[in-house]
Design brief:
Length: 330
């Protein structure tokens, strides 16, 4: 078992990378950590290392497989999520997974099945999955994440390498990233860390993006134009999403966090929102939406995020996102 450190997951991820680089990878991992971007980022980085086709240390970050994983378009990375309008993964989905298990990867040497929030697997689901995890082909690997590994059957736990993560403190992450980005104001770094749920890797990625300000403005414009009642102006924003397919996952996260901020402010009146520099805009927007509308919009964004993670048709996913959000209001 690999223990996550209290201050950062970088070192424990380094241990995993080293084991994979030395061909000591496990065919299955259980990542025990809080639900959200912190654990998801760790799991995706592990999957990238498993699929990397570069020489030397993995992931190399520059090979075809690493680039496709970074852009969220690798055909050999499968994310198992509940189907639309379902809270849990269905037994039928596990059976479909088993049916595809012995099909060779499309491009990489290894194909990875990622099951986030594995606590949503029922006992029958886990029993069905066990048959796949017990004797998978050499070209298949599994990554399951859960808030606690204890929610999984003992027999599944016994067949996987367990990694325990402890999320870092937000103040420590902010201090670390301020030293890495001396040109940015501390308030910008602190807000980005909040938006990323104290995930140092995700916050670093966002702060390093030259389009950080553009993505933030897109997020604000999304809700402003949606509430403005002019569909042409609202759907015009879809062009930015379509042109920046490599940023779709990040945009989905920003939209989701902002929706939660509006809901929190509207229901509690508290200023403890993550987009803290936008409190006045959040206050204004909270008066334009009902709770029911906001929850519907949030669901549409979650559906969009799942489609992105599952490598669905991006153009269709973007169309569905904008169309569903518009129909929530008009």
């Amino acid at each position: 078992m690999i223990k996550g450190l209290n201050d950062t997951a970088d070192e424990v991820l380094g241990e995993v990378f080293e084991a994979i680089s030395r061909s000591h990878a496990s065919h299955a991992y259980i990542v025990e950590g809080p639900d959200g971007s912190f654990t998801e980022s760790f799991c995706r980085s592990t999957a990238q290392a498993l699929m990397c086709s570069g020489e030397g240390s993995r992931p190399c970050g520059v090979c075809r497989d690493c680039i496709k994983m970074r852009d969220g378009i690798h055909p050999d990375f499968e994310v198992l999520l509940p189907k639309k309008d379902k809270k849990n993964i269905q037994l039928e989905q596990i059976r479909e997974l088993r049916g595809s298990l012995f099909v060779l990867p499309n491009e990489a040497a290894v194909k990875v099945y990622y099951i986030p929030m594995a606590q949503r697997l029922t006992a029958p689901d886990q029993n069905a999955l066990l048959k796949a995890i017990e004797e998978p082909p050499a070209f298949a690997a599994f990554i399951l994440s859960a808030a606690s590994a204890d929610v999984l059957l003992p027999v599944i736990r016994s067949r996987a390498a367990k990694i325990t993560l402890t999320p870092p403190d937000g103040g420590a992450v902010t201090a670390m990233l301020c030293s890495e980005f001396p040109g940015l104001e501390e308030s910008v770094v602190r807000e980005t860390v909040l938006i990323c749920s104290n995930d140092a890797g995700l916050a670093r990625e966002l702060l390093s993006d030259p389009e950080l300000d553009t993505m933030r403005e897109f997020t604000l414009s999304f809700y402003t134009r949606l509430s403005g009642g002019k569909k042409a102006e609202f759907t015009e924003l879809s062009q930015y999403v379509s042109k920046n397919k490599g940023k779709n996952d990040m945009l989905a996260k920003l939209l989701h966090v902002f929706a939660r901020d509006i809901i929190v402010f509207k229901t509690t009146g508290e200023k403890t929102v993550r987009f803290c520099s936008c409190i006045e805009r959040i206050r204004e927007l909270s008066e334009r939406f009902t709770i029911k509308q906001l929850m519907g919009i949030e669901q549409a964004i979650e559906d969009y995020g799942r489609a992105v993670q599952a490598n669905a048709n991006r153009n269709l996913a973007v169309f569905m996102l904008f169309n569903q959000c518009w129909e929530m209001l008009y």
